[in-house]
Amino acid sequence: MNKAAEKRRAFGKQLRDAATARNQSITGIFVFVLLGLFAIMSTLMVLLSAQMYRSTVSVADQTGEFRIQLSYLRSMVRGMDSTDNVRVDTWTDEESGESIPMVVFVEDYDGDEYLTQVYVYNGQLMERFTEAIYAFDPEDGETICRADSMQAAMENGLLRVRLELDGQAHDVCMALRSE
Question: Which pTM value belongs to this model?
Answer without folding.
Answer: 0.66
